[in-house]
DNA sequence: TGCATTTGCCTAAGAGTTTTAGGCAAACTA
DNA sequence: TAGTTTGCCTAAAACTCTTAGGCAAATGCA
């Protein structure tokens, strides 16, 4: 029988592409097998089960996103760094809606702790150094930024901001302005 | 054959409870039938299909949430109104994680336009009247608030903020302080 | 009250996804 | 070149979703 050359790696990559095409929810072991022209059972040598596949796609997306962010942020500081970071996030969600949804998958604590999610948090902390926040406030700010970027991408992906003015692009820019302003004038406890 | 007294209403309610117990993703026509001690096919007289069921649960949650918010906001203004509104959202996500997830379901545009989601937006606009923002900025602010609340509840539900200090409760309060401050000092275009 | 209609839940059945177990041949390895 | 590993296969069971058609309980009407 002709060997197709499956591997966990290739399955995850193809799964990510599939997610972008049909939505992360619709990613299925069967569909993936179909795309490789292979029987479903064959995938189970490379992936534990359906949940495992999805988790791997999520981890892949988080990694990819962290790499892009790190590149974008390098050599920048302050608002420049903030917008670069935020735009990577949003651009990624536009270019790869399925992977972005995957990156929002609920991971169990250990998996999450070992994921590139921690790099994201570290980068945000690095960006916040340009704003000079005292320690406990820094964590609050990281959470605010994470929530906002995450939430915006999610709502925008769900079509929440289409069909009304101002267009989403402009709101996004304005929101980044507002967040920058907020970080520069963070209220005292 | 004993009639159980199914109805779309009861199915949706039970579906919402099921979602809170096992997660919105795990809500299934089969499981719901099992809970009613009824054959699966019987549900199809009351609900078009699985997607229809989920959409109805989402609409139900949005409605419930809008009712709670309206109550909470009534008679309040400014920061008072803002925190009341935001807390309803977060408390709801804690008490009913499945319904909260349902409320984040992607709806098609017409369904969304007819949903209680528009009441949410209107309430946010009403709250913003206390902050005196010029018109285009108001929309930006609504989107910022929506994204942040949405994102925070989502990340918190995914366990993103557990196991690190300050605890999530405190960050939430501080974030509301910060957003209030931001709205009072909204940067000019 | 008796009859017709509607309605609620049923059985049957087909299609799709997930997962496990065991087999055969191709590809490495010595 | 023989032995081992590995990759993909077939088979089969369990589950979910969905449609079609049937019977009996509930309801409405004379």
From TrEMBL, chains A, B:
Species of the source: Streptomyces pseudovenezuelae
PANTHER family for this protein: HTH-TYPE TRANSCRIPTIONAL REGULATOR RUTR, TRANSCRIPTIONAL REGULATORY PROTEIN
Annotated DNA-binding residue span(s): 28-47
Keyword field: DNA-binding, Transcription, Transcription regulation
Xref: Pfam families: TetR_C_33 (PF13305), TetR_N (PF00440)
Domain annotation HTH tetR-type: ranges: 5-65
Domain of life: Bacteria
GO molecular function: DNA-binding transcription factor activity; transcription cis-regulatory region binding
Protein name as it appears in the record: TetR family transcriptional regulator
SUPFAM superfamilies, per database record: Homeodomain-like (SSF46689), Tetracyclin repressor-like, C-terminal domain (SSF48498)
